[in-house]
């Protein structure tokens, strides 16, 4: 398993970079493990709560890809959805996402 770099700006605007993040974790798990403010992950990564809503930095949108239909439905119910909205539990960290940057969305 490789280790990756992830940068998350929390809901208060504090930007933190995490090195040595384990490949295969979800972004939500990384945020929770590091106490990132505004990420709750209430459903434990089941794509059914939208408390892990983030905005993906523009330059990472293509690599992250589009949400599937189930995630899209959840995002519709999230507070302030944007075209770059994703549920962070549905973003699994893989080598091509090394260096990814996201911002935590406001809670509903
Ligand atoms: S943790 Fe519930 S939708 Fe992501």
User: What is the CATH topology descriptor?
Assistant: Ubiquitin-like (UB roll)
Named at the architecture level, the CATH assignment is Roll
Order of helices and strands: EEHEHHEE
The coarse overall form would be globular
The proportion of residues in beta strands is 25-35%
Mean pLDDT: 96
Tell me the radius of gyration: 12 Å
Main sheet, how many strands, which sense, barrel? 5 strands, mixed
Number of strands: 5
SS field, number of helical segments: 3
Q: How helical, in percent, are the residues?
A: 10-25%
- The CATH superfamily is known as Beta-grasp domain
pLDDT < 50 stretches = none
Provide structural commentary:
By secondary structure, the chain is α+β, with helices and mostly antiparallel strands. The chain has a single domain, classed as Beta-grasp domain (Ubiquitin-like (UB roll)). Helix content is 19%, strand content 25%. It has helices at 27-33, 61-64, 69-77, and strands spanning 3-9, 15-22, 53-56, 85-87, 100-104. The protein has a five-stranded mixed β-sheet. Strand 1 and strand 2 (15-22) form a beta hairpin. The protein starts with a strand and ends with a strand.
Descriptive terms for the model:
binds FE2/S2 (inorganic) cluster, alpha+beta, 5 strands, 5-stranded mixed β-sheet, globular
Question: What does the secondary structure layout of this molecule look like, with pairings?
Answer:
Elements: E1 3-9, E2 15-22, H1 27-33, E3 53-56, H2 61-64, H3 69-77, E4 85-87, E5 100-104
Parallel strand pairs: 1-5
Antiparallel strand pairs: 1-2, 3-4, 3-5
The protein binds FE2/S2 (inorganic) cluster.
